[in-house]
Amino acid sequence: MNQADAAYYSSDIAQGVIKTLTTEMPDARPAELEERRSQMNKSQIMDAYFKSFRGEITGDVIHKSILHIFEIDLDAVSLLLDGEKEALAAAQNTEAGTSPYSGSLARAVMDSRLTVYGGLITGPEIRSMLNQMFGVNLDAISSLEKARISLFSKDQWIVQHEHDLFVVYTGEGDVDVKVYPTSYFVEQTGQNELPAELRHILQSLGYQLDANQKTCYYADPDGQAVPDAFKGQTMGAIMAAIRSDYAHL
């Protein structure tokens, strides 16, 4: 997508959100609408945008909206098993030599999923569909916006801010997870290792500590993707540590 298209789509999303807020807050002034928009998390922005959307919702529309709202490129995310099967089936209808894992085919799989909704689909339904297809939990990602936790997953940075304190880094296929402090945390605290209390909590979840006590590491013993519940426990432990001892940083 070129810069002109990107700017247009970003503006289109902002206008769609304001349109929805105008319907929900008919007596609000423009400044109040803009203030409300600035307070919304990414899932709420997505919901408001699709409430206002009047065109056909396609895989391409979803891809562009996720790219601009969440800064996640679905073309670069591998499909889960069921999605792979659909992509392989779709590949039979494409020119010989086309990879079934190309971005265009991933969007084609989204298009095939969308047919069951009959053209009427909400933001929560889209997020559920994407979690089933790609294992991308956008609601969980949205909840991390102000948590000060950087998240690397699906071969790209999903959440990353300058003043984040800890990193959760998942490997290929989400079969392993590493937790370690950011350079900002080290600069602010003078500690180049994970806090002792956080280490102990993570170890109680099954993480192993590296020799330098800088990184906690977990790998699924069966080589399966780490379940969302385990990721949630990990995030919860880190958030609790931040609230307890590092909210002031």
Description:
By secondary structure, the protein is α+β, with helices and mostly antiparallel strands. It has helices at 3-24, 30-39, 42-52, 59-69, 81-91, 103-114, 123-134, 138-143, 183-189, 196-205, 228-246, and strands spanning 149-153, 156-159, 166-170, 176-181, 208-209, 216-219. It has eleven helices and six strands. A six-stranded mixed β-sheet has the order 2-1-3-4-6-5. A hairpin with a 2-residue loop joins β1 (149-153) and β2 (156-159). The protein is globular, with a radius of gyration of 20 Å.
How do the helices and strands line up, and which of them pair or pack?
Layout: H1 3-24, H2 30-39, H3 42-52, H4 59-69, H5 81-91, H6 103-114, H7 123-134, H8 138-143, E1 149-153, E2 156-159, E3 166-170, E4 176-181, H9 183-189, H10 196-205, E5 208-209, E6 216-219, H11 228-246
Parallel strand pairs: 1-3
Antiparallel strand pairs: 1-2, 3-4, 4-6, 5-6
Helix pairs in contact: 1-2, 1-3, 1-4, 4-6, 5-6, 10-11
Compute the separation of the termini in Å: 37 Å
The total of beta strands comes to 6
Helix content estimate: 40-55%
Task: Provide a count of the helices.
Answer: 11
- In spatial order, strands of the major sheet run 2-1-3-4-6-5
Please give the oligomerization state of what you see: single chain
Poorly predicted residue ranges: 94-102
Structural class: alpha+beta
Mean of the pLDDT scores? 85
- How big a fraction of the residues is strand? 5-15%
**What coarse outline follows from CA principal-axis ratios?**
globular
Order of helices and strands: HHHHHHHHEEEEHHEEH
Describe the main β-sheet briefly. 6 strands, mixed
Radius of gyration from CA coordinates:
20 Å
